[in-house]
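User: Thanks for the earlier help. One more: tRNA modification GTPase MnmE. Can you show the sequence and predicted structure together?

Assistant: Of course, both are below.
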Amino acid sequence: MNHPHSPTIAAIATANGRGGVGIIRISGKDLLPFAQAISGGKTPKPRTALYTDFLAADGSAIDNGLLLYFASPASFTGEDVIELQGHGGQIVLQMLLARCVELGARLAEAGEFSKRAFLNNKMDLAQAESVADLIDASSQAAARMAMRSLKGVFSQQIHALVDDLITLRMLVEATLDFPEEDIDFLQAADAKGKLASLQTQLANIFAHAQQGAILREGMNVVLVGAPNVGKSSLLNALAGDDVAIVTDIAGTTRDTVREYITLDGVPIHITDTAGLRQTDDIVEQIGIQRSEKAVQNADVALILIDPNEGLNDTTREILFRLPENLKCIEIHNKIDLKNDNPSVENRSGSLKNETGASTIIKLSAKTGAGLDLLKHELLQQVGWQGESEGLFLARTRHIHALQTAQTELDNAAACGNHQIELLAEHLRLAQVACNEITGEFTADDLLGVIFSRFCIGK
């Protein structure tokens, strides 16, 4: 609904820096007088561009360009919205923004335009979040999936699930007034079958959400191993550029070096760590501390093994420092020195190597032989199954809400024939969890956290 007491807000909607065009966005109630004041008395027609000077209080021109007026409710926020499209210099934009404040607007908070669109039912919460995801998309695949969420693909699946959940809840709660007949009634209505169908429906949504979360969050990969084992060479090979210095001198990498790549649309953040070893070099010690922090935050570790020494004491000391549940891939680099062929070997259980890795890959960072095997294995480790039409971007909070709903449906399925009240409560809690995704039920403090992460002007 439109909030009559919401103040008028204004913000620069284009990115910082110089550009051909800069945009000021204003949202509030009854903004025609505002538009007339800044344009020298001109009255814009809704959704029609008006070329005009943008005037200061004394009538002098601050800038000129296009003024667009979107009358409520046919606007992004559901309120009256004005966009001033002028020149893209930061000084002139700040002058124009100051003029908007003089006319009664206040500076918008981060994400406040999208928040108002949500509060005025122009979009649900999952769609509002996809606005930020579309802006922040780090690959073409992520952008496509964010647009699907913005168009309502994710929300439609949640709404369909909730509708079926409400139908089942109605059946269950209708029996609470007739305790002698409840079991027969639920059997006749096939309540168990409807619940099983809901569980399957939710499992499919959860599987798609997990894939969307992978594409949104990506994965963190660290290169670890003894000094001079080829970590920097492998980073350069994966990045396709000389981002790390490579020499035959141990300890050349004295700090963490981060590089970003995409594999099949999935963002991969790779960190080349300083060789984890004992050293008296103070600068290198700082680099090693940063390396240990990167390892703690990693999803996958690539453990490079020296082709001449194998698993030596230095590497064993590094392995001792790795988190217990960290996924590991063992890399045998420099196969070009032995004229070996690239290969991949998968092991499990007691057959795992001494490094704890379930996969062993032989490759050459120098020639590139075997790099495709490594890239494929990284996607396998993170669980990526490839982009498909049904996928959408999902956030960590969406995953948690879906997991909660799954737990409640599982608990509901475990209820006995005479636990109707308990069954009804588990179904209610499952619906609450699903409604948190689209915002039908969301705490105000959670809304504040979500929209505070948006950029100003959105």
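User: Great, one quick takeaway?

Assistant: The first helix runs from residue 32 to 39.
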